[in-house]
Amino acid sequence: MIIPLFVLTVVLAFAFALYALADIRPSLTPLVSLVTIADIVVIFGMFGMLYKGVEITLIAAVIVTSFAVKKYKNNIKEKLSDFLQPGVILFATSCLLMLAYLSYAQPIMHEWDEFSFWGISQLLIKNHDRLYTYYSSSMLGQSIPPALPVLSYIFQWCGTRFVEWTGFFAYDVLMFAAFSAFTAAFERKSTNSAIFVYLLAFITPFFFAVSEFLTYMKPVYITAYSDIPMALTFAGAVAVYFFSEKGNENAIIPVLPVLMFITFTKDMGLALGCIALFVIFFDMLVARENFVFLKIKGFFGKCFAAFVMLMTVGGTYFGWGFHLGKVLAVNRTDYGGSSGMGIVQMLLTGVKELLIGPKSDKFLFIQDNFIQAFSGTKVSMIGSGRNVVLLIVIIFVFAFVFGDKKGKKRSATMLFSTTVGFVGYYIFHLLLYVYILGDEAYNLVSYDRYMYTYYIPWLMMAVFCLAMAARDGAKFWAKGALAGIVCCVLLLFNFYIIPENIFTGVTGNSFAIRKDVAAKADHIRDVIGEDDVIFLYCGQDDGMRWFTYTFELIDNYIIPNRGFVSTGQTEQETKQLLQKEMYDRFKDYGVTHMLMDWTSHDFCLYFDELCDVSTSETGNAAVGYYKVIYGNNSLRFELVKGGKVNFD
Amino acid sequence: MIEKIKNISSRRIILGTALALVALFLAKGAFGLVTETVARKNGSLEYRVMLVQDMEWSGIENRDGVLITTDLDPQLATREIAKFSSLKFYMEYTVFPGEMVVYYMEPGDAGFSANKRVWLTPVQGEMGWYTADTSMKTVSAIRIDPTMYAGNQLTFGDFIFNEEKTVTDYFEISAGDIFNLFLYTGIISSVLKFLQEMLKKEID
What we know:
The complex is a heterodimer.
Chain A: H1 2-22, H2 29-46, H3 50-71, H4 76-83, H5 86-105, H6 112-118, H7 120-128, H8 147-154, H9 164-182, H10 191-208, H11 227-242, H12 249-252, H13 255-263, H14 268-287, E1 292-293, E2 296-297, H15 298-327, E3 334-336, E4 341-342, H16 343-355, H17 361-376, E5 378-380, E6 383-384, H18 385-402, H19 405-436, H20 447-472, H21 475-496, H22 512-524, E7 533-538, H23 544-552, E8 557-560, H24 571-589, E9 593-598, H25 601-607, E10 622-630, E11 635-644
Chain B: H1 2-6, H2 10-41, E1 48-50, E2 56-58, E3 60-63, E4 66-69, E5 75-78, E6 83-92, E7 101-105, E8 117-119, E9 121-122, E10 129-138, E11 141-145, E12 153-161, H3 175-200
Antiparallel strand pairs in B: 1-12, 2-5, 3-4, 4-12, 5-11, 6-10, 6-12, 7-8, 7-11, 9-10
Helix pairs in contact in B: 2-3
């Protein structure tokens, strides 16, 4: 708890320095401070200096803060008082409460993709003090950018071991910092309006992330998934620009580290970074008068500012690509997938097919599904995407009607640019489903999750405009509308989420598979060598247990079972074919051991004769770890360790 | 009176809201205590012990005296409980059960629904016992989902419905209650402050 608390303190101190020295609005500073620190550490990490990078960056942040304190030592109390705006206070309070809760509840990772990448990458980075690109492991997605795993690392860099809840806390700090930025329209005299916006932002992810678990709080703030943090950071980037009062580089430069962070978050971050850039540029063009960027005035200044943002996003994207090329010899632009296309080829082919044709059967099928899904697939508490868009438009209309002259212009501009952004985002996903995803594309797998990554920030951007109206326009009506929206969302929140069930998801039996696998892994850990290449057999696995084993036995290669496909005329022929297939596969992968997690009828029938101790003795609540003995075109399995495991 | 309201400070509004919510929580606990005590006395809330044989099964097979789950959604149900406030039961298993849930159907409901369920949690210090508590409800049926895995060998002990609670049970504070306290204090006090501003005509 001490290390995360220390890092949080440094983030806040650096935020104060940004306010004092760079004149950034206080509520925006926690986000800018956090992502700046994370971006710098990622860059250090790309050069193999992760541990030192954190030390240097945190020390630098402390030095800058000391300089700011020294500079304003005569009126430091005044400065501090001005810094403590509602957003900053809400940010610090939420972080401390969450820190207390997480350190008490000690939740662990238990969701699918936490073991495929988002959690396991944090574990790998912490264990090795290096980015995961520098060594090989069973982890998938080695080319995914590292901002979130690195953020988790920063909050525990000098700890003795990886602490999972600290990773959740790092994500929460990022999201709370974004919420703070959302409240930047309001100063202390309008604390209640800031609270409306902050709590609305807090509840909004639940408003969307309910499609699977309607009645208990899906662990939005206790998960290593990247979608919601990325979505909120995207809205945060727009907020940092939107709420900046300055008509000069002061409005743009703080956005750059946020754009950089989004692009460093995930491949989709590039698309979101570009949309944020577009929204900002459009607002500059239409609504910012007398704009000067690095002494260049007017239209050209705006274009130059956009160019700098584009360079930041592009530079980050290609910088990571350069790192991958150098360390892994991987081409970043090659998405691969079912059609083996690169991203540029995918966009060109897709846009041509969409606008000119001819369209393939797959394209037509998925396009129809996408159109129907917009009004037919539930993505939120109020239903489909169509309903969500309607709600967002209503908020924009409120903002337009109640805003002052400038506010009306900005609301209309923002509605237009974010709608264009949405259309682009929707088409981009259509193309991803058509060209990158395999058969699962026909069912629009994860459609809701991909879509709320845009709906959440879009809704918040509409709220930004309403917040501006509440500050500068017809305050009574705009504030009333803001309060009304918050109360409506809260009512829905109450309707869907039963109070008794809040937090149960992370303290009850949700960790069943994880606990089971962890207990089995612990049981055999002492006999596993560091070079063992382990074939995992689990008769009832849908992939989840394999993913979980890759996490628990992080230092070894875990080869999954792919099922038995060969069939012969007789049982004996089938057995011979399958054993030969297994021999070849084991040889290919250099398998040294077999981990029998959960046996099956088929395994007993075709392979049990190869084991010195029958696998039927392993399985439910019991495990077996076998050494593979290679013969002439044959295999044998010798039990190294096995037995009953108590995982209650 | 209106002048007094106009002059209430923000701190007092926040503190007042928080205290009101705490009072509401206590009142809710007291209400539960009183209504359940009365219901117990007049016999409508009945302490009842059942065995697994007394229930309807689905997704569970009895193979030579051993209960084995046959699909991913095994269920036990009863229609013999009229008022429901708690359940506690004993279960042994061969595969970790995963999420365990109790559904309740109220009179007039067409079936069990996702927003009428309570999660079962292990009883601290009592190995093998699971429990679910809720405020007293009139029910037409109760369904227990004891595991989310097939091939699980289950051994059940007693199913205890509506066990008498201690006074402190009604006032137990959960992490969810604390979360709600912060959430509602923030929103309600902000709405009150807004109304006060309106009263003071500080908002144009």
